[in-house]
Amino acid sequence: MRLKVTPLRVLVALVVALFVTVVVLQRIPTRTYILMPDVAHPVAPLVHIHGKPHPAGVGNLYFVDVREEKASQLDLLFPWLHPHSSYIPAKLLLPPGKTDKAFVHIELRQMAESQRDAAAVAEQRVSLHAIYPYGVLVQQVAVRTDAAKKLKPADVIVAINGRPTPTLPKLRAVMATVKPRATVTLRVLRKKVTRTVRLRTVGSRGHAFIGIAAALAAKIKLPTKVSIDAGDIGGPSAGLAFTLEVMQQLGADVTHGYKVAATGVINLDGTVSAIGGVEQKTWGVRDAGAQVFLVPVDQGNSKTAEKFAGPNLKIIPVTSIGQALHALAALPKLP
Q1: Residues 320-329: tens digit of each pLDDT
Q2: Nearest of 64, 54, 99, 95 to residue 230 by alpha carbon
Q3: Contact between 132 and 138 (Cβ < 8 Å)
Q4: What predicted TM-score, i.e. pTM, was given to this entire model?
Q5: What is the DSSP code (8-state) at residue 79?
Q6: CATH homologous superfamily of domain 131-220?
Q7: Which residues, in sequence order, are CB contacts of 253 under 8 Å at separation 6+?
Q8: Phi, psi for 220 (deg, rounded to 5)
Q9: Hey, where are the domains in the chain?
Q10: For residues 119 and 132, what is the distance between their CA atoms, to the nearest angstrom?
Q11: Which of 54, 138, 202, 255 is least surrounded by CB atoms within 10 angstroms?
Q12: Gap between the Cα atoms of 193 and 19, Å rounded
């Protein structure tokens, strides 16, 4: 007995075949991640100043993150399924030798550190002494320099040629008196042990440099206890938004009535560093209906945001918390 082939049966067979193909493609893993927009979130519900009532409503400050998912073979074949998204090879997203699980752990730790630093910077800005500098933290060491042989990440430089360097400006002031390629004597704190390190500087445009990327090393003692709960969101990029929200809840007029979104890594010296996923974050801010978006200048972050901002979102490039506050205060008064 032969089944009669009808157009309906052909159509059903094609639909079934298409469905099976889609399911199979969805289950084929790849070593690529998708960075997708996520609508900006109100910060106020996440922040609590102990001893103060929690503010009513959602507030007018927003932070924004990026949804990260492993791409399937279907996603790679049809990228238009995820508009305004970026596809990133895993090797560019995961630190060398790290697994997905380890990467999540790193991002959660960075979030916790950003919350602590945000609270400290915010309290420092409203005249509550919270940050006690004691040196310059070595974050990275430049290859092919004397520093690469003698310094390690997490070292803290506390003096150069006998002159104390408790902050980055102090270190720069000391280095301004050093001739390029001259040898300097550093007093370095490594794992609570102080040691002396002599190294030759490098020269660029007539200035001497040690050959490191650095940040402020400081002890934090919060006069006012702050709790921030971002759930399972990781990474340090919400630091600027958290700082502004803590300041606002401590009584500062931060937004001046505007609906403000912010992104950027907050450093203990008040500077704001670059973040990733700027395109997706800008779309998330637009979806939330924000009027202003504070974005780091570094690494072209603010220029990328301007490219995708549209006509109704004002991008404010920022380099520090002080500059961000000044720019917000300079906005036209709302009616």
Answers
A1: 999 999 999 9
A2: 64
A3: no
A4: 0.86
A5: G
A6: PDZ domain (2.30.42.10)
A7: none
A8: -115, 125
A9: 33-129+224-329, 131-220
A10: 14
A11: 54
A12: 64
